[in-house]
């Protein structure tokens, strides 16, 4: 890049600096010197050797015309540009005639860079022209060589008729003609000017009035070009020709034209822009220009604005921040933070300011565009409040586009469904569709909201984890001012808990109704079950009073009485057990037992009944006898097997019943299998419910309380297991359960308990105290023990029992009823133990609730008998404690 030397003749340093900035901004590389007086100018003109002089027109000590005169005297070919604040047309013509290259107004410095470059080019052209003319005079051949070999476009024109006398190769290439073609043309065919206008130009060029002409030239293709024509007279063989050097300046012309249009557009955009705009001086902050929108928005007239500074429209408390920003200006485009402005009426508004630097009328200035955001900030505050309300809403909110695509979800939606915004935005609400409702349901919903109506209802939707849940949903269309649907908003509340509560209430009500019905049926059934054996007991008991009754019949009647008594006792036992289960008082009492021995006892207990039904009855043990010792609740385990075996025999008309156990995965798996009537699949879950049998007429057909399976299920569960059934109608059923297997090692093989032969083996007479308030029960005991070697003392309550014990030291054993008047049996036991800790005491009671045995033993009893008890059980205990 060429670095030029510019000599400024200027008394105002600021004006020179502004010109320098404009030139540097257009990337012109140069060195410069500034002078104010004629001596300094003349000195620098010879010593600095500038490429160009830029001079003010009017100065206190020196004038531009004088500087131009001295330049022409000392360096006649040096380009000279007049730079002035104002100049009239006559003065401008005088300057140009005196030899000035160009003149520029200070308030339009944008043309200065182009003028400088053109002036330098013009000077170089003139220099080359004069060199060529000099050489032409020296040698025509040398002229021709330079003319032909120059890269500059050159024409030799005959001013008499405008014909082209000669053209160099550069001209031929530029215009697109051959030399022969160009020599047949006249200049009016190149520049399209009429002869009159063309002759005026020729006249000015020949007479030296003007040497530079901006013209339009047309090439052979018809293309229009803008050119600067540097033209002057050339004498060849006593004839005057015009020697012209042409420079294509189309780009510059188009640029200047675009610049002019841009300036006009800028002025139009500035003046008529609907947004407030102004220009202020950067050093004083004074307004230099405002547009009509600013006048209308702020309430000041244009004249008022131009007498103010930007500090006038700022609140006092914001001035420090304003001045701080001015100290640290941001050049070029800058969008600052939000500011506050004051209107003429005192109204305070929030504005957003966009600004950039510019030179305005030769002054450093800043162009500002104002955007009033007062209403936007209010709307943003409202939106933030609404957004916060939506985000923190206790119900889920979904906003979709008109086509159903999700645009927004709040925090509650994520909490309920498990989906994050990133997972659902851009999808449709079908992502939560459960499939419970039919397509017609959703079609009706869509038709409703598409008709610009609200839809309200309940939906079953699906969470991200696949879990179904209920929602109460309100969907509303959102409309624009033209009443077109733009969005839909869904307000949804998770009502799963309420639905579950409602369903539970309905289910509870249904269960209550069903329970009431079942209990009513149970009461009818149990009444029948109790009255049937009672009728037999009462009837046959009365027949025993007949003195003529045969011995065989008497024995038969007694067997009937025993059988019906056992049946009645079983019914009462079931009622007591189910009551215990209902009360939540059932407890596991684990002790060491031999599982095989228990299976043997069950077999002996039910084998006669199986034979009565002609059934094959078998048992299957999973362990050898010596390994069958376990820790378990023997009573409850036996009760489970008893209920299951009893049912199997009852409901099996032919075939077999088998029971037993196996060891698998550290569990005892018990089973009872039969070939009976079976259970329908839809009833298999109901048979374990209290008071229910498979058919309504089952009780009539087979008898029973309907409590056995409920008791068995409860006992299995409290022992840590589960009771199940596999059954097919008319093929049979298998009930199976599992409980923890807790083996006990190093125990001897257990023997079976042998029932007493019917008498007490006592070597010498013993005295027994019977504490019993009920006369019938005492009479039964008295009859049972009458034939034995025992002396009987009776006490009718606890107090009598304590006194009897104190007054009769010879008493060997006490049979104590636990429920008696005045003092209970347990209280009497505790009182006796205060003065006698060795006397054997056997508690006997009609109570059979869990914990009763423990209470009796804790009070001081040695043993515990539950009424009704067998003669064998009673005799075994008396014999145990009297020997």
Structure description:
The protein folds into 6 domains: 4-121, Response regulator (Rossmann fold); 149-255, Beta-Lactamase; 273-376, Beta-Lactamase (2-Layer Sandwich); 388-470, PAS domain (Beta-Lactamase); 586-740, Heat Shock Protein 90 (2-Layer Sandwich); 766-882, Rossmann fold (3-Layer(aba) Sandwich), CATH 3.40.50. 42% of the residues lie in helices and 25% in strands. It has 29 helices and 32 strands. The strands form 7 sheets. Strands 2-1-3-4-5 form a 5-stranded parallel β-sheet, sandwiched between helices. Strands 7-6-10-9-8 form a 5-stranded antiparallel β-sheet. The protein has a 5-stranded antiparallel β-sheet with strand order 12-11-15-14-13, with helices on both faces. Helix 19 runs antiparallel to helix 20 (551-582), helix 22 runs antiparallel to helix 24 (708-718) and helix 26 (798-807) packs parallel to helix 27. The longest helix has 48 residues, at 496-543.
What's this entry about, in short?
42% of the residues lie in helices and 25% in strands.
Biggest pleated-sheet summary = 5 strands, parallel
**Termini distance?**
139 Å
What percentage of amino acids are in beta strands? 15-25%
Counting H and I runs of at least 4 residues, what is the number of helices?
29
Give the tags.
883 residues; alpha/beta; Rossmann fold; Beta-Lactamase; 6 domains; five-stranded antiparallel beta sheet; 29 helices; 42% helix; rod-shaped
């Amino acid at each position: 890049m060429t670095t030029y030397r510019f000599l400024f003749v200027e008394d105002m340093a600021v004006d020179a600096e502004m010109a320098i900035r404009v030139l540097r901004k257009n990337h012109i590389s140069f060195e410069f010197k500034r002078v104010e007086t004629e001596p300094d100018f003349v000195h620098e003109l010879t010593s600095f050797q500038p490429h160009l002089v830029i001079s003010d027109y009017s100065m206190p000590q020196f004038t531009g015309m004088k500087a131009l005169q001295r330049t022409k005297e000392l360096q006649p070919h040096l380009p000279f540009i007049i730079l002035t604040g104002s100049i009239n047309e006559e003065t401008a013509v005088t300057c140009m005639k005196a030899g000035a290259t160009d003149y520029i107004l200070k308030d339009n410095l944008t043309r200065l860079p182009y003028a400088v470059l053109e002036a330098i080019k013009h000077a170089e052209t003139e220099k080359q022209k004069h060199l060529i003319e000099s050489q032409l005079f020296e040698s025509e051949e040398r002229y021709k060589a330079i003319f032909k070999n120059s890269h500059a476009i050159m024409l030799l024109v005959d001013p008499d008729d405008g014909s082209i006398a000669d053209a160099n190769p550069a001209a031929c290439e530029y215009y697109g003609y051959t030399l022969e073609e160009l020599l047949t043309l006249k200049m009016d065919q190149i520049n399209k000017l009429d002869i009159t206008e063309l002759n005026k130009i020729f006249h000015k060029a020949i007479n030296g009035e003007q040497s530079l002409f901006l013209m339009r030239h047309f090439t052979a293709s018809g293309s229009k070009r803008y050119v600067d024509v540097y033209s002057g007279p050339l004498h060849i063989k006593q004839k005057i020709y015009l020697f012209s050097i042409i420079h294509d300046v189309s780009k510059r012309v188009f640029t200047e034209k675009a610049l002019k249009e841009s300036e006009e557009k800028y002025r139009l955009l500035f003046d008529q822009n609907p947004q407030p705009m102004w220009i202020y001086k950067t050093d004083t902050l004074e307004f230099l220009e405002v547009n009509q929108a600013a006048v209308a928005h702020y309430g000041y007239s244009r004249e008022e604005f131009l007498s103010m500074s930007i500090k006038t429209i700022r609140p006092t408390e914001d001035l420090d921040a304003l001045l701080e920003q001015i100290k640290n200006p941001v050049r070029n485009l800058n969008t600052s933070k939000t500011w506050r402005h004051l209107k003429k009426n005192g109204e305070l508004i929030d504005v957003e300011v966009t600004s950039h630097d510019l030179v305005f009328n030769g002054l450093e200035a800043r162009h500002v565009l104002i955007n009033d955001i007062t209403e936007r900030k209010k709307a943003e505050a409202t939106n933030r409040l609404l957004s916060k309300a939506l985000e923190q809403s206790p119900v889920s909110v979904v906003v979709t586009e008109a086509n159903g695509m999700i645009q927004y979800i709040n925090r509650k939606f994520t909490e309920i469904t498990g989906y994050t915004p990133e997972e659902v935005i851009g999808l449709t609400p079908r992502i939560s569709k459960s499939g419970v409702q039919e397509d017609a349901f959703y079609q009706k919903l869509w038709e409703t909201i598409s008709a610009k109506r609200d839809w309200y209802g309940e939906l079953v939707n699906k969470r991200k984890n696949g879990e179904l849940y209920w929602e109460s949903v309100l969907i509303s269309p959102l409309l624009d001012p033209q009443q077109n649907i733009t969005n839909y908003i869904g307000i949804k509340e998770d009502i799963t808990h309420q639905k579950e509560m409602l369903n539970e209430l309905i289910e509870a009500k249904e269960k209550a109704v069903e329970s009431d019905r079942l209990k009513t049926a149970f009461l009818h059934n149990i009444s029948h079950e109790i009255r049937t054996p009672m009728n037999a007991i009462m009837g046959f008991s009365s027949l025993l009073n007949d003195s003529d009754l045969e011995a065989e019949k008497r024995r038969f009647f007694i067997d009937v009485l025993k059988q019906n008594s056992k049946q009645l006792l079983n019914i009462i036992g079931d009622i007591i057990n189910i009551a215990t289960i209902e009360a939540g008082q059932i407890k596991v009492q684990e002790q060491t037992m031999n599982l095989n021995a228990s299976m043997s006892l069950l077999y002996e207990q039910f084998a006669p009944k199986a034979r009565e039904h002609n059934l094959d009855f078998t048992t299957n043990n999973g362990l050898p006898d010596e390994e069958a010792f376990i820790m378990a609740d023997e009573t409850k385990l036996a009760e489970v097997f008893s209920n299951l075996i009893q049912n199997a025999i009852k409901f099996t008309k032919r075939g077999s019943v088998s029971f037993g156990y196996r060891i698998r995965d550290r569990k005892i798996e018990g089973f009872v299998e039969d070939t009976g009537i079976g259970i329908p699949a839809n009833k298999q879950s109901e048979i374990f419910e209290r008071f229910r049998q498979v058919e309504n007429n089952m009780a009539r057909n087979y008898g029973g309380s309907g409590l056995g399976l409920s008791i068995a299920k409860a006992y299995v569960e409290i022992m840590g297991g589960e009771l199940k059934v596999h059954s097919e109608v008319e093929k049979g059923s298998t009930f199976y359960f599992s409980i923890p297997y807790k083996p006990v090692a190093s125990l001897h093989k257990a023997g079976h308990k042998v029932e007493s032969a019917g008498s007490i083996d006592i070597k010498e007479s013993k005295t027994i105290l019977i504490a019993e308030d009920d006369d019938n029960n005492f009479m039964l005991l008295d009859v049972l023990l009458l034939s034995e070697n025992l002396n009987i003392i009776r006490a009718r309550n606890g107090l009598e029992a304590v006194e009897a014990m104190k007054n009769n030291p010879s008493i060997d054993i006490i049979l104590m009823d636990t429920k008696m008047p005045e003092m209970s049996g347990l209280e009497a036991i505790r009182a006796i133990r205060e003065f006698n800790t060795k006397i054997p005491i056997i508690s006997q009671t009609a109570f059979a609730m869990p914990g009763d045995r423990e209470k009796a033993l804790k009070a001081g009893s040695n043993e515990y008998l539950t009424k009704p008890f067998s003669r064998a059980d009673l005799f075994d205990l008396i014999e145990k404690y009297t020997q």
